[in-house]
Write a structure and sequence with these properties.
With 98 residues, this protein is mainly alpha-helical. The chain is built from three helices and no strands. Helix 1 packs antiparallel against helix 3.
Length: 98
Amino acid sequence: MRNFVIGALIFSVLLAIFISPFASKSPDGLEKVAEDKKFLSSGEGQEKWKAPLPDYSIPGIKHEGLSTSVAGIVGTLITFIIALAVAFLLKKKVKPSE
């Protein structure tokens, strides 16, 4: 199982590196509707939380493709760590009967 998890992590990070720069620059569905209905600007500056990776980029990295790749790697690693923690907690909670 350990080899599978490590392989899946490596595969996911490679996807984040090489595929994320090809992500669409068009707005997602919710943002597109907000633009079409002309209420997108009414929510600007009223965010409850600041996005850690705004627009799937890393502030300070000038090259757009590199910034998107690094944001993809960071997002992949954060998701992996959270999933691993949840799996670990569930494994401890549910012990197989002997």
